[in-house]
Amino acid sequence: MTTLGRTKSALLVIDVQNQVVDGAYNKDAVIAQINVAVAKARAAGVPVVWVQHSDEWMAINSEDWQIVPQLVPAEGEARVRKLYRNSFEATDLEEVLAGLGVGHVYVCGAQTNNCVRFTGHGALDRGYDVTLLMDAHTTTDYSFSDQVVPAEVLVRDLNASFSGEELPGRKADAVLVANAFQ
User: Fold this and answer.
1) What is d(CA 140, CA 43) in angstroms, rounded to the nearest whole number?
2) In whole angstroms, how far apart are CA 129 and each of 9, 12, 51, 146, 174?
């Protein structure tokens, strides 16, 4: 249903880096589910695209910046380096996806309320269909104005907001990894 006229899918693995997931909600289980998603995508011939954030507190090539050791990108899989929460902003992600003929993205990774949310919405804004892997994203508690929003609430909120969403010519949904890539 995408507005891009492209029929293929890709899996975006967003910011599952040492520093980003340090102390994250349900970290080990989520990383295990991301591993399952990566294996299922590869088995289905769906390209995997690895996204890595960098910032003044997480320099490129530092130990903090590295993808967690439990996840191993395969040779030839695309890597996108970014500076902003939206993985499309000031990166070559759109060019990578266009070159692969992708009009639908599966989204997983970290941080739920930041880079996963902004990338998912950024993809919708650009005409992609988006499927959030609801058991394959995580975050830490979020504090603002002397209030704390628990990570579990942030995960549930994003899952709910992507479930069954339709926009003109494109759609979003949230599914378990077990039901993805079919």
Assistant:
1) 31
2) 9, 13, 18, 36, 11
Beta bridge partners of 138: 110
* Ramachandran area for residue 23 (φ above 0: left; ψ -120 to 50: alpha; else beta): left
pLDDT of residue 100: 97
Annotate 45-111 with DSSP letters as a single string.
T--EEEEEE-BTTB-TTSTTTSBPTT--PPTT-EEEEESSSSTTTTSSHHHHHHHTTEEEEEEEEE-
CB atoms < 10 A from the CB of 120, how many? Answer: 28
pLDDT tens profile 25-65: 999 999 999 999 999 999 999 999 999 999 988 999 999 99
Q: Which residues of the chain have pLDDT under 70?
A: 1
Q: Which amino acid, 72?
A: V
Three state DSSP letters for 47-59: CEEEEEECECCEC
Residue keyed to tokens 């996963």: 116
Predicted model pTM: 0.97
Cα within 13 Å of Cα(7), Cβ side: 0
Residues constituting the chain: 182
Indicate the Cα dihedral angle 153, 125, 32, 139, nearest 10°. Answer: -30
Query: Helix or strand or coil: residue 132?
Result: strand
